[in-house]
Amino acid sequence: MDLPLIWAGLIATAVLLYVVLDGFDLGVGILFPLAKSAGERDVMMNTIAPVWDGNETWLVLGGGGLLAAFPLAYSILMPALYLPVLLMLAGLILRGVAFEFRFRARKRGRKFWTQMFAAGSILTAIAQGLILGGFIQGVTVQNERFAGGQFDWFTPYTLLVSAGVVAGYALLGGAWLMAKTKDNLHGDARRWTLVSAGVVSALLVAVSLATLVVHHRIGVNWGIDLPEFQIRWDQLGPRLFIPLIGLAGLILIIGSALRGSHMRPFIGALLVFLSGYLGLAVSFMPDIVPYGIDFRHAAAPDNALGLMLVGTVVILPLILAYTGWVYWVFRGKIDEESGYQH
């Protein structure tokens, strides 16, 4: 049994689930300032109220799994990305506090906590973009230790990636609101989704080109060598299905949103994120610390991985079952007057 590969797959799955599940409720917070009234903002918050806490479970599983299963990778990546990780945690704490206090605050306090919920959501998305950008551009490692500076993650490239993450979460949030709301708010969400889809399309192209130019090692993994202007079609061809998934998602989003659809734009947004995630997997495998530490070298001993896997096999299905049950129970539309309708 290839335990390092199994754990790499488990952590990758946990991170993907976090990105798409917590991504849409972060997106709702990013779109918060665009709502036309306090009532609309109440509806927006009620669409995520039953699920937002559970969505963050996957972040804990991904981060905790990295520490336990790949301690070498954790010991290198955390010092390299310490400051944006702290910014992300600060944003998550701020939006969590704002979420609880906003419903209980009076008029002036309610306005303040509304602003803090939006600020916390935007800060979290920006920080996650900086973490992703810092990871893509690589980490300086010497003697299996981080040997770079504390601000290596702060570059024009990481800012571009961060903008892409914010736009992507806004797209997820807008598509989620199309699925969960109706009437005027549904129409607003439709407009937000279309605008976000256009911005995401432009930023996807910009980030992809910047990645190939600035970090050409990723291009080599795909079969594209820009400095030499060479394309190895035998390597690139089988992988073209990945960007095609993203293109299909964008077409589904735009086409269904223009028709005023409800659930299809969200499915399209999920396809866009799945395409990006698969693209990252192809770009880095087998490295878990770009560029030079692969996941097998960074893994904990097999006996430790096996023991943790036993517990995970028991717990993970329970988490998945509970998550699915919550989404099923709170399915349907929500509005100001009647709450959830089935």
**Main beta-sheet strand count, sense and barrel state:** 2 strands, antiparallel
Shape: globular
Mean pLDDT: 89
- Give me the side-by-side strand order of the main sheet: 1-2
Describe the protein in words.
This protein is mainly alpha-helical. It has one domain (3-332). 75% of the residues lie in helices and 6% in strands.
Give the arrangement of secondary structure elements.
Elements (H helix, E strand, L loop, with lengths): L2 H29 L6 H11 L3 H4 L1 H13 L1 H10 L1 H21 L4 H31 L3 E2 L2 E2 L9 H25 L2 H32 L1 H7 L1 E2 L4 E2 L1 H4 L4 H18 L5 H21 L2 E3 L3 E2 H4 L3 H28 L3 E3 L3 E3 L1
Antiparallel strand pairs: 1-2, 3-4, 5-6, 7-8
Helix pairs in contact: 1-4, 1-7, 1-8, 4-5, 6-7, 7-8, 8-9, 8-13, 9-10, 9-12, 12-13
Using brief descriptors, characterize the structure shown.
8 strands; mainly alpha; 15 helices; two-stranded antiparallel ribbon
Précis, in short:
With 342 residues, the chain is mainly alpha-helical. The chain has one domain. It contains 15 helices and eight strands.
